[in-house]
Write a structure and sequence with these properties.
alpha+beta; Nucleotidyltransferase, domain 5; 5-stranded mixed β-sheet; 21% helix
């Protein structure tokens, strides 16, 4: 008996598929027992995950669907709990779960390598167009476009010019039935009665393919990351990880800035029955004690989707050079800079103020 699980992070239920009898069952916990707080902390998400998973049998593979609203500390706290209940563990963006649902359900998929699959999510006044391409390893997420629904037919013409060999699937809910039924476009139409149910089912399919890659090679979606950006004060965000970047990912950035605070945001797409929006969630942030810093930022996303961020800094004693962001470059010390303290777990100094002392333990404080 092989059990595959799919869990939307922060929810009160988990769905488990038995590959032997080819049937799925949902395990729920009482919402009164695990009521959702206004602000999630790693401790709260850990407790809820543990409460949900306590009642389930041991899993062979577990897929956690990340809706995009939790910090990295919260996600990693949930993963730490989940790894005790499954031999294999992977976390995927909600967008990946949506893709997997569609590719597993479609009745007329692309048959030839390099053929495109266009997934159109229709939601009230907007249409979200995602372009996937079939490869020998599954579907490769290429790009997305967001257009107003009133321009639907013009968009169809644009896509026909850009992609000569493709199939289109319309994903829609009850509120858009009338619009979809009136379209003359020859394509597959896929009705979604419940959004969370769709994400859960997509997670299950990803789990089945992850556990046995031979079963879904032509339907699986190649692992990718949500976009991540660096926000310094009120300045425009700088891209750290591009939306759709393939896993695993290792990015090194050296940033020279006058700053007092910064944040790292994860970009995600929020979809409900009323709207589609592009939003971002702060997954890591710092309020710095001194005015001027040079800092090195390393972002690592593993093959299973888990993200780690290493942050190191140096106090600047001379005038700041022009801002420079070097993607994929190793962090090097500048001759114009003097290190105020050695940034390591064991380093100590009596000359630092309390705020600087709090930042000394890089592995403990700044690795998430």
């Amino acid at each position: 008996m092989t059990l595959i699980g799919s869990y939307i992070l922060g929810s009160s239920g988990i769905r488990i598929y038995d590959t032997k009898i080819k049937d799925a069952k949902t395990y729920w916990v009482n919402d009164d027992k695990v009521s959702d707080p206004e602000i999630w902390t790693p401790e709260l998400i850990s407790d809820k995950t543990k409460t949900v998973f306590t009642e389930i049998p041991k899993l062979e593979c577990l897929i956690i669907v990340d809706p995009g609203i939790y910090s990295n500390d919260c996600i990693n706290a949930a993963l730490e709990v989940a790894q005790n209940y499954s031999a294999k563990l992977k976390i995927i963006p909600a967008l990946m779960a949506r893709f997997c649902y569609v590719t597993s359900k479609t009745e007329n998929p692309p048959r030839n390598l390099k053929e495109f699959l266009i997934i159109v999510t229709i939601c009230r006044e907007l249409c979200d167009w995602h372009i996937l391409q079939l490869t020998s390893n599954g579907y490769d997420y290429i790009i997305d476009h967001l257009y107003e629904k009133k321009n639907f037919h013009d968009t169809v013409s644009i896509m026909a010019k850009r992609y000569s060999n493709y199939k289109t699937i319309l994903l829609y809910s009850k509120d858009d039935e009338k619009f979809v039924s009136g379209l003359k476009l020859k394509c597959e139409k896929m009705y979604v009665p419940n959004w969370n149910q769709m994400l859960t089912e997509g997670g299950l399919q990803k789990g089945i393919w992850t556990n046995n890659s031979l079963t879904g090679r032509s339907k699986d979606v190649i692992d990718f990351a949500s976009g991540m950006s660096l926000k310094i004060d009120d300045r425009p965000p700088l891209s750290l990880v591009k939306q759709g970047a393939k896993l695993p990912i290792k990015k090194k950035h050296s940033v020279f800035e006058d700053l007092r605070s910064f944040a790292i945001n994860r970009d995600y797409q929020h979809v409900d029955y009323d709207k589609i929006t592009r939003e971002s969630c702060v997954i890591f942030q710092k309020e710095l004690s001194c005015e001027v810093y040079k800092f090195n930022l390393n972002v690592r996303i593993e093959k299973n989707g888990q993200c780690f961020i290493d942050f190191q800094y140096q106090k600047q004693i001379f005038a700041a050079p022009t801002a420079n962001v070097a993607d994929n470059s190793s962090a090097q010390n500048s001759d114009e800079y003097a290190t105020a303290e050695s940034m390591s777990d064991k380093s100590t100094t009596s000359s630092l103020d309390n705020n600087s002392k709090a930042l000394l333990s890089v592995e403990k404080e700044t690795k998430i």
